[in-house]
Amino acid sequence: MKKIILFASVVGFAAALAASAADPKDNWSTSCARCHGADGKGQTNMGKKLGAKDYSDASVQSALTDDAAFKAIKEGFKTSDGKTVMRPAANLSDEDIKGLVTYMRTFKK
Q1: Whether 86 contacts 72, CB under 8 Å
Q2: pLDDT tens digits, 49-106
């Protein structure tokens, strides 16, 4: 019986680790930095081409709600004429996306 309880505990712990959200900084580096830059300023080649916003700018941040940022990450973002400028983030949970939004807020100066 002790072995069964121990086994169940180990399996439960492993499942909890697998379900936990990844580090937001790592997710930013792999999913966002190519366009938005490691510093959130959008001054990468791709960011300049696509018109990425400067998330270190307080006025840019205040104009963007958390809900809108979450939606853009989850669903992607299109211009008013329908051109896709940001694809939906693949393989990110809602918790990962919330972490990205919180991390993006740290760029504000």
Answers
A1: yes
A2: 999 999 999 999 999 999 999 999 999 999 899 999 999 988 899 999 999 999 999 9
SS3 assignment, position 84: strand
CA distance 10 to 103: 31
Does a structural domain hold residue 6?
Answer: no
In a domain, 2, yes or no: no
Q: What whole-number distance in Å separates Cα of residue 3 and Cα of residue 49? A: 59
Q: Two tokens at 85? A: 């400028």
Q: How far apart are alpha carbons 6 and 54 in whole angstroms? A: 50
Position 58 in a domain: yes
Domain membership of residue 30 as a residue range: 22-105
pTM, full prediction:
0.76
pLDDT in tens, 26-50: 999 999 999 999 999 999 999 999 9
